[in-house]
Specification:
230 residues; mainly alpha; Helix Hairpins; 2 domains; two-stranded antiparallel ribbon; 7 helices; 2% strand
Length: 230
């Protein structure tokens, strides 16, 4: 099993009793809370495969079960180390749940974990197939701003921009459907135990579609803001 799809199951030594344990959160022998292995990711924290299609109800159930087990109230009379671990792991669990409960943060996390998604690492570029439409949209936005400054009639410009907004919203819906399809491709690589090169090829596709989605979403939002101010 390769580095991208492997789940964490390496045996460790319990800090309390010294026994070897492969249990992720509690020692199988003495039951003491354990530190998470450094390589543990949010999927394996919940005992899930590193897939993008997740049953939301199942994830929520796992979250509540772990939250109850790790809650600091359960360690009020425990040692200082156990109390510290409880607080740290509860915080980690909350972060993990926020990252995985929605599809977009989930894919952002998966790509970031693989070093393929860095905030602000590159300037967004217009998708080549949209260059002409984006150019026309920017021209219309400039005309609207100029017309507002001059106090001119905005009716025609607003109608043109509203139509452009609807057009780009449709494209955003199409990209969302494409992204869901690539989710399936990724999950298939996990199920098949595909090699790291194959997985990274699908990740690159996910990254490209996500970038395209982000660009189009920003266009829709920017047009909406301009229309709301005019």
């Amino acid at each position: 099993m390769n580095a991208l799809s492997a789940q964490v199951n390496t045996a460790r030594i319990c800090w309390s009793c010294g026994a070897s344990t492969d249990a992720p959160l509690f020692c199988a022998k003495c039951g003491k809370i354990q530190e998470l292995p450094r390589e543990t990711d949010y999927f394996s924290l919940f005992g899930l495969p590193r897939k993008l299609r997740i049953d939301g109800e199942d994830l929520e159930r796992r979250f509540h079960q772990l939250s109850w087990k790790l809650h600091p109230d359960n360690f009020v009379r425990a040692s200082e180390k156990e109390r510290e671990l409880s607080l740290a792991l509860s915080s980690e669990l909350n972060d993990a749940y926020r990252a995985l409960r929605e599809p977009l943060p989930r894919i952002e996390y998966l790509l970031a974990r693989a070093g393929m998604r860095k905030e602000g690492a590159h300037k967004q570029q217009a998708p080549p197939e949209l260059l002409e439409e984006v150019f026309e949209l920017n021209e219309s936005l400039d005309e609207l701003r100029e017309a507002k400054t001059e106090g001119a009639d905005l009716t025609e410009l607003r109608a043109r921009l509203a139509e452009a907004q609807r057009n780009f919203q449709e494209k955003l819906d199409e990209v969302d459907a494409e992204l869901r399809d690539v989710f399936g491709e990724w999950d298939a690589t996990v199920d098949s135990g595909a090699d790291e090169a194959s997985q990274r090829a699908v990740m690159a596709k996910l990254n490209e579609v996500l970038n395209r989605r982000s660009y189009i979403r920003n266009l829709v939002r920017n047009v909406g803001e301009e229309l709301g101010q005019s």
